Amino acid sequence: MRGKAADVWARTIPALVVAAGLTDSQRETAIEYCVTVARLWQAERELSRTGLVVETERGNVKSPWVTIAHQYRSHFRSLVGELGLSPASATRITPPDFGGDDDGDVFD
User: Fold this and answer.
1) Which among 29, 40, 106, 100 has a CA at the least distance from the CA of 69?
2) At a CB cut-off of 8 Å and minimum separation 6, what does 73 contact?
3) What are the tens digits of pLDDT across the range 48-58?
4) Which residue, 58, 65, 77, 92, shows the most beta carbons closer than 10 Å to its own?
């Protein structure tokens, strides 16, 4: 999971620093987004492997991964809105004016 979260970070966070002016004080939200995406992928992978219904001693039941995926998907949607990653929420983001002083060290 750590590798997937790192991949999401590398693909997403630098763009958010430039496009939305993401700052160090927003680091935890950015980390939470990356972890949430990785865990959602993990849940979906497990659902693909085990199916939506699993057999138990009491019969067939909905896989617990269905609930986990649903919870992470809901959290994902809220973080996407907070970070301006959806088309609708991106319209509310004003790109920062770095004034040429950006040294690229945000989140380093």
Assistant:
1) 40
2) 40
3) 999 999 999 99
4) 65
